[in-house]
Amino acid sequence: MIKTGITALLLVAGSASAQSHLDRVMQSKTLAVCTTGDYKPYTFLRADGSYEGIDVAMAQSLAKSLNAKVKWVPTTWKMLTQDFLGKQCDIALGGVSVTLKRQQTAWFATPLGIDGKIPLVRCADKDKYRTIAQLNRPDVRLIEPAGGTNEAFVHSHLPDASLTLFHDNVTIFQQLVDKKADVMITDASEALFQQKRYPDLCAVNPDKPMQYGEKAYMLPRDDISWKLYVDQWLHLSNATGEYQQIAAQWLGSAR
User: Fold this and answer.
1) Alpha-carbon gap, residue 116 to 155, rounded angstroms
2) Helix, strand, coil distribution of the chain in percent, nearest 5
3) Cβ atoms within 10 A of the Cβ of 220, count?
């Protein structure tokens, strides 16, 4: 019975391996990457149609390790999971937050670090919007991109505040500068990066986020061969300093 069980497991493992995204990428020489292209410093779609950012460079590194080229698959935060599954991406990245809802339909690679939700506000107002109690008021005008974890946080923690969903996660910060909104709840890394680009804006308590969060690359569920490869590649990228060098190009002057 034990021998039969082990044989069955080996057959299942062999079948899974044969169907792995790892094999598909190596055979096709193409790494399909879902990304929104609107979330600096992780991913940004430039006017010429090319991408840049921390996770963009990391995707290119992953593809190179497999002797493949990146095929970018555009998506939005609202459609991320649906596009990831429907368009058969090998990986989704660009500042993706780990959530249990996403975990229900996908796996995550080893987390890249902690990055919780904080308020981004005009510096003149940084003492007014520091706590949930201060933020969860009808007179507080929140602005968020639709469909992501920022919107989810507002619905769950700040239901009494006035929420506007904005169509463009690139120009959304100017809405705060122009006083068309008061607060954007976002990840500490984005807030720290954007306050360097917009001197009128300040990240509030970036070292004490209002909600714990992690960033990670999203992978197809139940493909253990692919996950093990991506995790090992990430481990070596960190051990050799490759990831730190890439991140420093974007975050070195932002913290």
Assistant:
1) 16
2) 40, 20, 35
3) 19
Predicted pLDDT of residue 18: 53
The span from the CA of 116 to the CA of 149, in Å, is 10
Closest CA to 35 of 74, 84, 79, 85: 74
For residue 226 the two structure tokens come to 């692919």
Pinpoint the alpha helices (H) of the chain: 2-18, 21-28, 54-65, 80-86, 100-103, 132-135, 149-157, 172-177, 188-197, 224-240, 242-251
Give whole-number Cα distances, 163 to 54, 118, 153, in Å.
30, 16, 12
Token pair 């609202």 is found at: 78
The half-sphere exposure of 207 on its side-chain side, counting CA atoms within 13 A, is 1
Question: Measured between alpha carbons, how far is residue 239 from residues 57, 83, 234, 235, 244 in Å?
Answer: 17, 32, 9, 6, 9
Residues in the chain: 255
Q: What is the per-residue pLDDT across 172-230, written as a single tens digit (0 to 9) for each?
A: 999 999 999 999 999 999 999 999 999 999 999 999 999 998 999 999 999 999 999 99
- Cα separation, 2 vs 152, in Å, equals 47
Question: Do 102 and 218 contact (CB within 8 A), yes or no?
Answer: yes
Task: Give the span between the Cα atoms of 99 and 211, in whole angstroms.
Answer: 12
What pLDDT, on a 0 to 100 scale, did the predictor assign at position 113? 85
Q: How far apart are CA 129 and CA 223, in angstroms?
A: 43
Instruction: Determine the Cα–Cα distance for residues 59 and 145; give it in Å rounded to an integer.
Output: 24
CA-atom Rg of the chain in angstroms = 20
SS3 assignment, position 200: coil
